[in-house]
Amino acid sequence: MKKNNIIYQVYFPSFVPTIKDLIKKLSYLKKKLKVNMIWLNPIYPSGRKDCGYDITNYKDIDHTYGTLKDFDILIKKADELKIKIMMDLVFNHTSNQHPWFLESKSSKINNKKDWYCWYNKDEKEELNKWESSFMSEPWTWCEQRQQFYYHRFYSEQPDLNLQNHEVIKEIKNIIDFWIARGVRGFRLDAVGYYIADKEEGQFNTTKTYSFLEMLTKYVKKKNKKIIILAESEFENEDQAKKFIDICDLSRNEQFATINKLDIEKINNNINFWYNLNKPNKIPLWYLNHHDLDRQRYGEINPKLAKLMAALYLLQYGTKIIYYGEELNMRNSFPGTQFDSYGRDKCRSIFPWTDNNKEDRYWIPPHPDDISLKDQLVEPKSVFNHYKFLTNFQKNLPNRVSKCKIKKKSNILQIKNKKYKILLNFSDSCIEFKNMKNIIYRSDEDIIGSPKCIGGYEVIICEN
C-alpha cells in the first residue's frame, strides 16, 4: 500500500442502507475525501446477535444489504475510481446458527465434530480462569454433546478450532472466493484470540502468531498487493512488534485509549508507534471505530474536532476515517432502544440531509448533528476541514514525521522536511513567534496578533 492513503470505514446500515446506495456515494468518498480503500464491516448473512460479527455464511451477502451481483458492481464501480474494497473477515468464531456449528453440536461423531472448541467438564475446570469479553464466563453447555463449547465473545459466537486442518482449508476457500471477486484488502477481526492455549492462555499465544503468519503468507502468495490489516491488541512492545512484522497494518489504539487532552501522553504515544513501525512498515492511525464512543476528548466542540483530525491525518502513514467522523457526528441520543454494551450509540445513521436525520430504520443520529448538506456550504465546517486535510496529506513526505511539545507550552509540533504543523491543545490563544509561510489555519477569525495560535487551532507552515 502506498504511503499516506485513506481508508474509509463503512458500517452498514449506518452510512447507507444498501450496497446500491454505497455505489451512489463512491464519488463523494473519492472527490471529497480522497479515499483509496473502503473497509466494509461484515455484510454476510448473520445471526444478528453482534451486528454481523456472528456469521452464518461466509460466501454470500446479507439480503438486507443486497446481493453478490450488487457487490460485483460495487467492485467494478469502485475500481473505476481507483478505490479498493477491504472485507472484514471473522475467523475467530462463527454464529451458533452457522451450518458448521449445527452439525458439530449434533453429536461427537460427525464430520465437523472437531471444528469448534469442545471441552469436557473436567477440562473446563482446569481452565476456569479463562474469561469472556461479554459474558460472565466463556463456556456454554451443549446437551446434545454433553460438553461445553468455548466462546471468547457471546455464547452465540462459538470459537472455531483453527488448528483443525479442515477448518483451515475452508478458511482458505473463503479467502479465494473474495479475492476472485476483486477484494483487495482483508481486515482480520479479533486476531489476538485466534488460538487459546492451556499453557499460554487466551491472548496472543504462540499458536495465534503462527496461524496469522500462515494466513498472511497464503494471501500474499495469491496476490502480494492485497492488504492485511490486523485488529490486534497488545500488552507490551514485543507483542505489538509481532503483529506489525506479520501484517501490512496493525491496529493502533494510541489515540483510542486517550480520554482527555493529555498532550504529553499523546506525544509519547505517537513517537512510540512510529518507533515500533521502523524501519520498513507503514504506521496506521485513526481516532474512532465502531466500538468506541465518538466523543472522548472533552466537550463537543468543532474546533477540538478539527484539532484531533489534524493530529492523525497529518501524520506519516495510512489513516482510517470512521464514517461520519468528518461531520463531527455525536453519539446517538441517549434513550433509544438500541444498545449493545454501550456500542450502538456510535453507530447511528449518517445525516446526509436534515430530512434523513428523521429516519428510524436504524439508530437515529443525535438531533444536534449537522448534516453533510449544511456543512458543504459552510467554509469553516468540520467537513471542509477534513476535505482540506485529506487532500493536503497526499503532499506529505514519505518519511516519519517528528513530533515534539514546544517547551513549556500546550503546542504540539509535527515537523517534516516540507512542513511544520502546530496544534494548540489548550482552549486559549498562545503566543508563538516562529510562524512563517502560513498556508493554512483552521480558525482564521483569531482576533489579535498574527503570532497567536488560537485555542484548539491548527496551523500549517511551509519550511
- What's the total helix number? 11
Q: Write out the strand line-up for the largest beta sheet, numbering strands in chain order.
A: 9-8-7-3-2-1-11-10
User: What is the fourth-level CATH superfamily of the largest domain?
Assistant: Glycosidases
In total, the number of domains comes to 3
The low-confidence runs, each spanning 5 or more residues with pLDDT under 50, are none
The SS-based structural class is alpha/beta
List the helices and strands and how they pair.
Layout: E1 6-10, H1 19-33, E2 37-40, H2 68-80, E3 84-89, H3 99-104, E4 118-119, H4 121-126, E5 139-142, E6 147-150, H5 165-180, E7 185-188, H6 206-222, E8 227-230, H7 237-246, E9 249-250, H8 263-277, E10 284-286, H9 302-313, E11 318-322, H10 372-376, H11 382-392, E12 402-405, E13 411-415, E14 419-424, E15 430-431, E16 438-441, E17 452-453, E18 458-462
Parallel strand pairs: 1-2, 1-11, 2-3, 3-7, 7-8, 8-9, 10-11
Antiparallel strand pairs: 4-6, 5-6, 12-13, 13-14, 14-18, 15-17, 16-18
Helix pairs in contact: 1-2, 5-6, 9-11
Describe the structure.
The chain has 463 residues and is an alpha/beta fold. The chain has three domains: 320 residues, Glycosidases (TIM Barrel), CATH 3.20.20.80; 52 residues, Oligo-1,6-glucosidase, domain 2 (Alpha-Beta Complex); 61 residues, Immunoglobulin-like, CATH 2.60.40.1180. Strands 9-8-7-3-2-1-11-10 form an eight-stranded parallel β-sheet. Strands 12-13-14-18-16 form a five-stranded antiparallel β-sheet, covered by helices on one side. It has a three-stranded antiparallel β-sheet with strand order 4-6-5. Helix 1 runs parallel beside helix 2 and helix 9 packs parallel to helix 11. It starts with 5 loop residues before the first strand and ends with a strand. One of its GO terms (biological process) is oligosaccharide catabolic process. GO terms for molecular function: alpha-amylase activity. This is Alpha amylase, catalytic domain.
